[in-house]
Specification:
Blueprint: E1 14-19, E2 23-28, H1 39-54, E3 60-65, E4 70-72, H2 77-81, E5 89-90, E6 94-95, E7 107-111, E8 114-116, H3 118-124, E9 128-132, E10 136-138, H4 152-159, H5 162-171, E11 174-176, H6 177-182, E12 188-190, H7 195-207, H8 211-223, H9 229-244, H10 248-257
Parallel strand pairs: 2-3, 3-7, 4-8, 7-9, 8-10, 9-12
Antiparallel strand pairs: 1-2, 5-6, 10-11
Helix pairs in contact: 3-4, 4-5, 8-9
Length: 266
């Protein structure tokens, strides 16, 4: 990918690239282990989340996985069986250093193959999902005497109809990409080879917009289903006031009138 700084070709379990100036691409890179999360991946993902949040040039991030049978099979059961399962979560980020991490910037999951257990929970922790047409989503934890404790038990019922979510949570049944799209779980379904390209296309649209507008809209949109309308109206008004106080709220209309791309400062 042109203009990227990358560890591509290395054996590191997590790859990081910059796509142009404003897009970060984080790639799970243990395809032989179905990209199952181990300790090294957990620590690196948490580090990259903090890096992306702190970098004023980066406006949106993509979470993808190396080609293979799975986006992510969840926790590395070898480490869980050895008693190291608790090491696969961090105090700030939860599982994989990611699912509960505080992130003000939007993340897009680009998934393929099996997105099971923690793999689905990583996807649910993102703001948008692009799925390859061979993707299988599921939370099989009950089949192994476990629960989807990295957000799956409460995020899945928020993302799809309650009855379907409860069926998946209690039976361990899975759904394919097209069913997930019909239920509103994913934004796009594409050929496997196009999944990252499609995620980048969405990311480019996000990155072209005013960062302050995206940040405020995302923050309110994330909690919209959980708050009362009167509270949301107050939060919306406060967000509008913050945005209108910034130069970008004048630059956008000015650029539109002058028929040129806006130059965002906030």
């Amino acid at each position: 990918m042109s203009g990227s700084e990358t560890h591509t070709g290395s054996v590191e379990p997590i790859l990081f690239e910059r796509i142009g100036r404003h897009i970060a691409l984080v790639t799970l890179n243990r395809p032989a282990a179905r990209n199952a999360i181990n300790l090294a991946m957990t620590l690196r993902i948490e580090e990259l989340v903090r890096l992306i949040e702190a970098d004023p040039e980066l406006r949106v991030a993509i979470l993808a996985a190396a080609d293979g049978k799975a986006f992510c099979a969840g926790a590395d059961l070898t480490e869980v069986a050895a008693g190291d399962g608790l090491l696969l979560r961090t105090a700030d980020g939860g599982f994989a250093g990611f699912v509960y991490a505080q992130r003000k910037k939007p993340w897009i999951a680009a998934v393929h193959g099996f997105a099971l257990g923690g793999g689905l929970e990583l996807s649910l922790a993102c703001d948008m999902i692009v799925a390859a047409d061979n993707t299988i989503f599921g939370l099989p934890e009950p089949k192994r005497g476990l629960v989807a404790g990295a957000g799956g038990m409460f995020r899945l019922p928020r993302a799809i109809p309650r009855a379907i979510a409860l069926e998946m949570l209690t039976t361990g049944a899975s759904i394919d990409a097209h069913r997930a799209y019909a239920l509103g779980l994913v934004n796009r379904v594409v050929d496997e080879a196009a999944r990252i390209k499609e995620a980048i296309a969405i990311a480019e649209q996000v990155a072209a917009n005013a960062p302050s507008s995206v940040r405020e809209s995302l923050a309110l949109g994330r909690i919209a289903a959980e708050r009362r309308e009167d509270e949301l109206r107050q939060l919306s008004a406060a967000a509008s006031d913050r945005v209108l106080a910034l130069e970008d709220s004048r630059e956008g209309p000015r650029a539109f009138v002058e028929k040129r791309p806006p130059v965002w400062r906030n």
